[in-house]
Design goal:
Length: 267
């Protein structure tokens, strides 16, 4: 994960804030003289660990700080920390869970997606960047302002990372016959030979790197990611309300365990 952080910040003059939220087992607390003593032990142990952890980043001349936080549920602490620090990006390692495990319990990844206002990069620590391709997954089905804004945010994030890393950007979207591609033509005097060319011109992406697929969004994203061997998939996440939203979930959550690439979730 530190390798990803270094690559993304080395050329951006960024500041990396390491946030460690943890809470000791009850048995450890019981061994302490008091809760205050337990906290002091916690901070001493974690401080040494974090200082060793940040050495590779410091050697890359990246400015860094760290914060130790005493909290039982770190997935609740992270969103607040991100707001306090005005973070532009949260970076977290992730591992594949089975579908039943995701459904039966609130995993930290899903909790972060639903609570954080900052973009989150979920890193696969067992996979290096090899193809140099960032796949931006957008939604062309709904022409309303909210979806248009989210699409632009996804594309912008993908292009920003591409500039920092030297990668290229591709686009994928599931489409149906209801999509009005003409609405994406800004100059009505322009002529286009394909819908891919229209979308490519609209977002500033080469038409050969635009993938439009009929069917479900999840399938379209997985197939395109495999085709281009994407290193990073950038996808938007919408706020879901009510019981129905909680049960159905959104595409960002559905693909998290099935992609082998890093996943950047933009809200």
């Amino acid at each position: 994960m530190l390798d990803r952080v270094s690559k993304l910040t080395r050329n951006a003059c960024s500041h990396v804030h390491f946030f460690v939220s943890d809470y000791p087992e009850k048995s450890q607390i019981d061994k302490s003289f008091s809760m205050s003593d337990a906290k002091n032990r916690f901070y001493e142990e974690k401080l040494e660990w974090v200082q060793e952890l940040v050495k590779p980043i410091e050697s890359d001349s990246v400015k860094s700080t760290f914060e130790l936080y005493w909290h039982k549920n770190w997935h609740e602490a992270i969103p607040h920390a991100a707001v306090r620090r005005a973070s532009n990006l949260i970076v977290k390692s992730t591992f594949a869970y089975g579908k039943s495990k995701r459904k039966m319990r609130k995993t930290s990844d899903f909790m972060l997606i639903r609570r954080c206002v900052s973009p989150i990069l979920f890193v696969r620590e067992d996979k290096d960047y090899t193809s140099g391709v960032i796949l931006a997954a957008i939604n062309l089905e709904y022409p309303d302002e909210d979806h248009a804004r989210l699409n632009m945010a996804v594309i912008q994030r993908a292009k920003t990372i591409a500039q920092l890393t030297g990668m290229s950007v591709a686009i994928v979207s599931a489409v149906t016959d209801t999509v009005t591609f003409k609405s994406y033509i800004e100059d009505k005097d322009d002529t286009f030979s394909s819908n891919e060319e229209i979308i490519g011109a609209y977002f500033g992406i080469d038409k050969d790197k635009v993938f439009l697929s009929k069917g479900k969004a999840k399938i379209a994203i997985l197939e395109a990611a495999e085709k281009v061997d994407a290193d990073i998939v950038v996808i938007g996440s919408v706020v879901r309300k009510g019981v129905t939203g909680a049960l159905i979930g959104n595409t960002a959550e559905k693909i998290l365990d099935e992609l082998v690439s890093d996943v950047l979730v933009v809200t």
